[in-house]
Amino acid sequence: MRKLLGMLAGLAALAVTSLPANAVVVGTFGVNPTSAAGAFSNDPNGPGVGGLFTDFYTFDLVGASAFITIASATNTFAVGGINGPFGIQNFAAAIFETVGVPGGGDDILKFGPQVATLCASGFCQQLDGFGFLDPGSYYLQISGNAGSLAGYGGNLSVSEVPLPGAVWLFGSVVAGVAGAAKLKRLKAKRNAARLAVA
Question: What is the pLDDT of residue 18?
Fold first, then answer.
């Protein structure tokens, strides 16, 4: 089972990083996109046309700290499932740091590929994820094999976070918990010693 999962993950990575001839920038979110600026939807390859697609959505992060980046995308199908005209086979997403031209082959994979999972209703597939990115130029890559009537929509948003402070806060919390645990152990030993004397 582990071998099969490893092979599937490898194939998904290959599918995302092997760009078809129709890879194209279909949207630009701008600088430090909010959820309003990062909303997107697309009909891959155009109305009534299915097939392989790779769509890029570019964005830039400008600031002194790291950014938490959250992205999600959904493909819906009332009938036919993933293999029907409304579905997208191998629906996946990844975030790359741009080096030169988006999709030029020298970009740096930051997150993904994330492969879509079936929604609880069984009438859609969804992918989502989050992570920290440093200031720079990036793109969200969405790819798959679309049915002739397929489309998808989603959202990408970022929020600047004071990462050094967050690390310090985490360290303070860990130190505080460790100190409280040590104090509790010392009190337990003292109480045990009192009971032994009495």
Answer: 44
Give tens-digit pLDDT for 141-198. 999 999 999 999 999 999 988 755 444 343 434 444 444 454 455 455 555 554 454 5
pTM value is 0.70
What average pLDDT does the chain have? 78
Q: How many CA atoms lie within 13 A of 23 on its CB side?
A: 19
**β-pair partners for 109:** 96
Say if residues 139 and 58 touch (Cβ distance below 8 Å): yes
Domain ranges (residues) in the chain: 2-161, 162-198
| Extended strands (E) in the chain | 23-31, 39-42, 51-61, 66-76, 88-97, 108-115, 117-118, 124-133, 136-146, 152-161
Closest to 91 (Cα-Cα) out of 10, 21, 147, 138: 147
Q: Which of 20, 147, 140, 19 is nearest to 88 (CA)?
A: 147
Instruction: Give, in order, the Cα–Cα distances in Å from 66 to each of 116, 128, 135, 139, 161.
Output: 27, 20, 7, 16, 6
CB of 160 closer than 8 Å to CB of 32 = yes
Question: Cα separation of 19 and 142, whole Å?
Answer: 11
Overall CATH class of domain 2-161: mainly beta
Beta bridge partners of 115: 92
Provide the residue type at 195 as one letter.
L
